[in-house]
Sequence to fold (157 residues):
Amino acid sequence: MVTIRSFLASIALTAFAVPALANDIHAGDIVISHPWARASAGKAGNSAAYFAITDTGKSADRLVDAATPAAESAMLHLSIMENGVAKMKMLSGIDIKPGEVVELKPGALHVMLVGLKAPLKEGDRFPMTLTFQKAGEVKLDVEIHGPGASHAGHAGH
Ligand SMILES: [Cu+2]
Fold:
């Protein structure tokens, strides 16, 4: 039996969940969650952007390109450890299987921003366009977080 009290509780929970979804961008079967980038430290001309990609459909998709007016170039990278040394591998694309969540995060997959046109300041935002093979172009507003955000794969900057 559903009491009024539990009914109200479920409404309260639903309302509470909304802010967390505000950063989700939908394009076809693809959902991009919480895009963010690290603020650039000092004169560092590079940074990286992160987000989660969910494929809610029944077929796989592939992220093939990223572009932003904030940097000279944006590249798909994977941070790896090789003989105890952090390295980055350039990727031609990132595959997303149906029902899967692929997380871009510090020390792992990321969109490398090379040649920043201006320093990335905490609290600011910049636009980014991702291109998927099936879902097409997805426009994001990337939130800039503090420079202290850990990023194991980019110890040099
Ligand atoms: Cu990189």
In short: Residues 24-147 form a domain with the Immunoglobulin-like fold (CATH 2.60.40.1890). Residues 15-21, 151-157 have pLDDT under 50 and may be disordered. The two ends are 58 Å apart (CA to CA).
